[in-house]
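Friendly challenge for the regulars: who can give me the structure tokens for this chain first? No prize, just bragging rights.
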Amino acid sequence: MQSRAVTLRRVVPVAVLFLVADGAFSFMAPLRSERSSYFFELSAPLLALAVCGWRAWSTRSRTRDLWWLFTAGLGLWSLGMVLSAWEDLLQHFPFEIASLADFNFFFYGVPILFALSTPAEGRHSSLFTWLDGVQALFAGYLTYVTIFARPPFSAGAAAPISISVLVLTYNVENLALAVGSIVRLLATGKGGEERRFFATLCAFLVSYGIGVGIYNKMAVDAADHFAPNVLTDAPFVLLACLILTLPHDGKESAITTPAKTRAALFIDLSSPVFFTAALLTLGLVVLREHFYTGIAAIDFALAVYGVRTTTLQIRFRHAQEELQSARDRLEELSLQDGLTGIANRRNFDRTLEAEWHRAIRTRQAISLLLVDLDFFKNVNDVHGHPFGDRCLAEVAHALRSAAARSGDLVARYGGEEFAAILPGTTPEAAQTIAERMREAVLELKIPNETGLGPFVSVSIGGCTADGIGASSPAMLIETADQTLYKAKQRGRNRTEHTSLQG
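First reply, four minutes later:
Bragging rights claimed.
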């Protein structure tokens, strides 16, 4: 903030002196001359052009392209002023009709309109950039046709529009750009480089529209076409001062820009329609005198809008598909045990509830196996916890391989406990699967020296609910747990099974 104040103290006095001198040479008859007036009229836009170009070159934020577009517009305006000086001082071109300089003064708004129609949110598309670039060239072509009443490089003499019609055209363009900048400013957040850009652009376009409007009115109404040049120079001096006093975007890169409201986001994302509307307007303007050119402009504007809309719809559909895929993947991960890779307790609870209700509807049996590693604490104590984690993963894989049917679910139930849901499985079949599981774990030959033997073993308690009536999933779990306790009491490394009658 202190450096910004220092910059203000340096810049403002120089700007004021420049405008005072400009006003003196404009109003004081002894000092007034075409050469002196063009000195100020050229100096002000060239200064703004240099400062804006410096800002575009030095910034590193995503508004860099916007600053370059602004610079391009100022470059066209400055070129128009150079042509105006050449036409007045050397060619003595009449004031009453439009000239090539007026083409540049009008066409300067196309890059600025390009900036206004560039949304800040979302991914920028190279396709959209090329389409808008072609629209810009088409807009320049239509601008030339509008001013000179004939296509460029065509045979025949040009028939420029009158100065009154040209002034009206300028006023409409300046009003449209000023309104567009105000709308874009309202669509930005309260901080950040994006808002600084549109605030600066808005201040310039509003002051420029007012100053040039008054200047053109005075120049057309006055008998000698006199109007004070300070009216057109002041907006460029103001622009240079505003840019020079802006903070550098790199110092605020860590600040989070507030989220936009729905209305602001709507304005931001619908801003590309500005360019389409401008092209449609120009097409309608030239339609009367150049029918096919006007129709081509209208068709092209609608085609670009259609391509943009279709492309955005395709992207939206792809984004939805990717989001759904990510959601499915996230759901899958939320139902999976991170250590063993099999279903977790949440998945177990959900599946058991669903399979229980299915068993009620189909009147089929449902079996549940609870599996507990025997003396697993000894594995961790002797071999360490990393070895114990690998042991759990290998046991989980063996249990899942033993329950190989597609409808069976093997889940990690607790620390060293596992569970298997076996839909449509009779007590005999469930006991066979349980025994297969127990043997599969023994075949892993994971070291665990205990009274049961040299390898890791499991105890399994099972329960089958057949003819479900007043029973519940909780009762099935409780009964299976009691059966597992019985297997442990009877010496471990064994399976026990029981049935639950409704």
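Confidence is low (pLDDT under 50) at residues 251-256. The beta strands are 366-373, 409-412, 417-423, 447-450, 453-455, 458-466, 495-501. Your move, everyone else.
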